[in-house]
Amino acid sequence: MGTTDSLLLNEQLCFPLYALSREITGLYRPLLEELDLTYPQYLVMLVLWEQDGLAVCDLGSRLLLDSGTLTPLLKRLELKGFVTRKRCTDDERVVHLFLTYSGRSLREQALDIPAKMLKNIDVEVEELNALKITLNKIINQIQKQL
Length: 146
Description:
The protein has 146 residues and is mostly helical. The protein has 3 domains: 1-34; 35-109, Orthogonal Bundle (Arc Repressor Mutant, subunit A), CATH 1.10.10.10; 112-146. Helices cover 64% and strands 7% of the residues. It contains 7 helices and 2 strands. A two-stranded antiparallel ribbon has the order 1-2.
């Protein structure tokens, strides 16, 4: 990113991030198909396995997704029987998400996914942790500017 032509593809930060995202999602696909989940649905489930009963707006904040993206995703998870949505009695504008029995049970089936992904990527855990720290730093910097 210091050459004379900053418009070369090899000079772009966005391209390797985009390509890596596509490749990683592709590695997840066969593992998640066994659970009947897409990658975005898996991300939702990860958050709910951490904190069941989360408000939709808080889930959107955690996943950096707006309600227009999140709502259809949640409807599909509800149709699959993994989550239920309930309006808050104090404020009907607030919707909370709760795992169903099937949604909680799905966690057990997903436990080996991180290990399988590490094996598929075949990069040292320390390198991946360093990359994750750097990426989170960049994401936080961008979020501060919004």
